[in-house]
Amino acid sequence: INIGTGVDISIKELVEKIKVEIGYTGNFNFNSSKLDGPIKKLTDVSKLNTLGWKHKVSLEKGVEKIYSWYLS
After folding, report:
1. Which of 9, 2, 1 lies closest to 63, judged by CA?
2. Which of these, 66, 52, 58, lies nearest to 21 by C-alpha position?
3. What is the CA radius of gyration of the chain?
4. In which band, very low, low, confident or very high, does the pLDDT at 1 lie, cut at 50, 70 and 90?
5. DSSP labels for 6-69?
6. For 14-44, what is each residue's pLDDT tens digit?
7. Is pLDDT above 70 for 2?
8. What's the pTM?
9. Which of 17, 26, 48, 64 could bond 53 through an S-S bridge, CB–CB 3.0 to 4.6 Å?
């Protein structure tokens, strides 16, 4: 069973969210000549939803919480 939010996001978009959360002002370089796997992956959470489960933490809040945990 996939567990996720069912929201599609690219690796670049995720990197940007993390970058904002941690206050990183530098740049990231992606080597697009060495792609390995999908650029995006949407987790299908429909089976979990039919069982009554729904995520309670947004991706943004999850990034915030894990960074706070890491710092402590």
Report:
1. 9
2. 66
3. 15
4. low
5. S---BHHHHHHHHHHHHT--S-----GGG--S-SB-----HHHHHTT----S-HHHHHHHHHHH
6. 899 999 999 999 998 888 787 776 666 677 7
7. no
8. 0.70
9. 48
Question: What pLDDT sits at residue 39?
Answer: 66
What is d(CA 72, CA 36) in angstroms, rounded to the nearest whole number?
34
Element containing residue 1 per DSSP (H, E): none
Name residues whose C-beta falls within 8 Å of residue 35's C-beta, 6 or more positions apart in sequence: none
Determine the Cα–Cα distance for residues 8 and 14; give it in Å rounded to an integer.
Answer: 10
Separation between Cα atoms, residue 70 and residue 7, nearest integer Å: 24
Which single residue is written with the structure tokens 């567990």? 3
The position carrying tokens 């069973």 is 1
Query: pLDDT tens-digit profile of 37-67?
Result: 666 667 778 888 888 888 888 888 989 999 9
